Amino acid sequence: MRLRRTQGESLVPLPPSLYSVILSQMSTVLDSAEVESLVILVEEATRSSKEGVKRFIEPAQGTLRRAINKRHHVIFGRRGSGKSSLLRKAAADLTIDRRPIAYVDLETFKGHTYPDVLLSILLSALKEFNQWLETAAVHPANKTSFWQKLFGTRPNRPAYNREQIALLSADFAKHIDQLQEQLHSSDHTQTTSSTKTVEEDSSSFDASVNIAFQGLGAGSKASQASSGEVTKEKQQTYKHSKLEFLHQHILEYQDLFRRMREFCGGDPIYS
Q1: Same domain for 264 and 149?
Q2: Is the whole model's pTM more than 0.90, yes or no?
Q3: Are the beta carbons of 120 and 242 closer than 8 angstroms?
Q4: Span 189-230, pLDDT tens digits
């Protein structure tokens, strides 16, 4: 091994003793706990995480801006190229701007069968939107425990109307409970429902009374009625279908998104 001298351009050999000392010191540094911690941090940084959005670097100028505009996008690239990091950063920026956002990882549902996969994705989307309604939509900008801790900054836009958001969130929660019940139920099963009704049953009879008093006759007629209740039961058999359930409630889901758009001043964003 040779080193360049500072006084000139000539090269001089490195003394073997000094070379051994340098190798020993390098080995000590590489095997230190600090370097091991650094390696772990670098490995963790290669995986997308919520905390990583604070250190996000655009792969190319304008990439993030295009990712959050109101158009459909297809993002592709090799493993580890930063696709998930870009989506998480876009979700974070939209959240800071108080725009409705639902981040759903479809990898979670790759083993689900049809139509459970539809129920699962819709259920996750509604949960994400409802969490946004309960936090980013109404938290004031000075709530540092939320904005600074998660995003390192705070929004410029004011919070939305709490009463409207609370009513909307309650409707989201109702549909979430219904979808969870459907997801855990059996599909294409025969179900029998019974409906009981109570009706009144009335009948009457007549009673005639003749009274004789001092050669005078008088008669009267009385009518007496009796009443009762009759219980009737009606049974109906139908086939339970998860897909039919979604078809029956699709207008209600559309109404949820319409109201969210009206209350929050913009189109909901999906990721």
Answers
A1: yes
A2: no
A3: no
A4: 777 767 777 777 655 444 444 544 444 454 545 444 455 677
